[in-house]
Amino acid sequence: MSSSPSSPQAPAVQHLTVDEESAGQRLDNYLIRVLKGVPKTHIYRIIRSGEVRRNKGRVAADDRLAAGDVLRVPPVRVSARLPDMAPAVPARQFPVLHEDDAFLAIDKPAGVAVHGGSGVSSGVIEQLRQARPQARLLELVHRLDRETSGVLLIAKKRSALKALQDQFRERETGKTYLALVKGAWPQRLKVLDQPLHKYLLPDGERRVKVVSRDDPDGMRSISLVRVVRHLPPAPELALSSPQGFSLLEVTIKTGRTHQIRVHLAHAGHPIVGDDKYGDFELNRQMDRRGLKRMFLHAWRLKFVHPVTGEAVELQAKLPPDLEAFLH
Fold it and tell me: Which residues are catalytic?
């Protein structure tokens, strides 16, 4: 780095040069690591406002940095008392599906964000780092929604991080989810190829919608659907979902925000328990029957090992609460 964080007495503009070890890291995670003592909420605020510049241009929180990038960071005041005041990140281990020198695969529980920020003090990656202080590097390879459980990859080497992220970006991975949806999914409907557009609500919360193919803001999004089985409705749910429910395998060829949730809801079969795109009255009834979360689980992930080049297939069993609900 070309400069160090300013003293609390004299905050000034900083120009930080991204080194080789930090290449490939998200902007928000990089700044959280470098600007120790600065609240995460403030870091996200200066990114959103455009005060953080990369090579003199605007940059988003989830943009990946490259070695040699020069970041302009506005004056930020570091509170000397902040480390004592900030809530401690709890150390937490997660069920391990696979681990070697290159990466770690865990079975992420529902209800836990993958990383802190946007109102969440800490997530999987911060809690894992706290539980493994000896680890030289732990970085998220990809993301899962907070409400989604299942397979999550964490790189332990920078080279593995880049190789795995390249596979995700080039659509060379196989990502299959299990979802329970409202109604009887039509067997003939196997491919959902509809552009998605991400936007913000007035309160800053993210939402996604299907748009027309000629929409300049639409991102091509492809989901493949296979019906695992059809579940008849319970008598007390017959009015809310007269055609019962469908358990689906959904394989995504693109990794857009909320892709599965929006594609399935747009097709008229929202995921049970989805609090953003679902059937809210049905969700309330399901909650009373014991389903306290969205029924979406990252079940299987196929990719090429970043070091050996061998094919890897990982599976996370359906969590006990979802399995019990099916029966």
Answer: 145
- The DSSP annotation for 36-63 comes to TTS-HHHHHHHHHTT-SEETTEE--TTP
71: part of which helix (H) or strand (E)?
strand 70-73
Tokens of 28: 């928000």
How much is the pTM?
0.75
How far apart are alpha carbons 312 and 303 in whole angstroms?
A: 5
- Cα(321)–Cα(316) distance, integer angstroms: 14
Distance CA 211, CA 196 (A): 6
Torsion of CA 75, 81, 86, 89, to 10 degrees: 100
- Express each pLDDT in 142-170 by its tens digit: 999 999 999 999 999 989 999 999 999 89
Displacement of CA 53 from its chain's centroid (Å): 24
Distance separating alpha carbons of residues 265 and 271, to the nearest angstrom: 7
Distance CA 205, CA 270 (A): 20
| Contact predicate 223/208, CB 8 Å | no
Classified as helix, coil or strand, 304 is strand
Distance between CA atoms of residues 320 and 292, nearest Å: 13
For residue 125, what are the CA distances in angstroms to 20, 133, 140, 250? Answer: 21, 12, 7, 26
What angle separates helix 40-48 from helix 27-34, to the nearest 10 degrees?
130
